[in-house]
Amino acid sequence: MTAVPPAIAVLVGPSGCGKTTVGRLVANRLGVGFVDADDLHDPAEVERMRHGEALDDARRGPWLDRVHQALAAAAGDGRGLVVACSALKRSYRERLGRDLPRVRCLELAVAPAKLRARLESRADHFFPPALLDSQLAALEPMPRHARIDAEQPPDAVAAAVVDRLERGDAGIVDGSALPVYDLGKGHPFARDRQQPLFDLLRMTGLVHDTDLLASRSLTVAELTTVHDLDYVECLIATSLPLPDPRVLARAADHGLGPGDNPIAAGQHDAAAAIAGATCAAVEAVLAGECRAAFQPAGGLHHAMPNRAAGFCLY
Questions:
Q1: Cα 135 from chain centroid?
Q2: Are the C-beta atoms of 281 and 294 separated by less than 8 Å?
């Protein structure tokens, strides 16, 4: 088995989110180094911030360069590293992604009111509470797949971070929960393909319930953005337990009948659910719920606008 390289992670969040405490816990669990990015500030800047003066982008630049250098050094010599950092704008995170693709940025999310309460209760904190607004303004929220609920105890937050780092940020549609269409005994399109796959994924710990993406079926209106209405209506009609003989007479025009795509009850509903699950996976990525998504029951790419082909309906 190929060894997994040590994690290189940046935990991002404003003062009071617990990133330093959590970062140390994460680093200890992973057996890697830890750097508090606050320690990389120029001493003169630190003194200004202690008196409530916020950093502007120009003064933040040299500090971010030092953060970048620490991450690059860890990536260059194969060491792992966890860095706790207050606020990284999207442009800087994108720069990290280009320069250091192994770095994972995760946001520790806490409601602003709770952040203020935490800071006000800690007189010895590095930043005074007055700087929180400027930090919140500088922090551009990350996609949902990169956010960790940090309103839990530190141990629970650290466990969630380690889990995210080890398992990645991809989602999967539960193919075993989707309806299937049965093309008959002996047909190569087996209806029980998904259950053994998901039994194995769960048994080996590769998939957890939190990885599963919500699914939906496509409506006729959505299907007809790709398929002709007469084909969709024919497939709906032939999917009934007792199809109308007049519909059956024209089913062959749509590739339905003996051969690759025999007529079977419930085909439309199952195929619309499978196609809808693929769309739901795409929508989850676009909405920021995950960085990548897999729909193992999908890929029915032989279907044509006006006919079924190669076991594929929609």
A1: 26
A2: yes
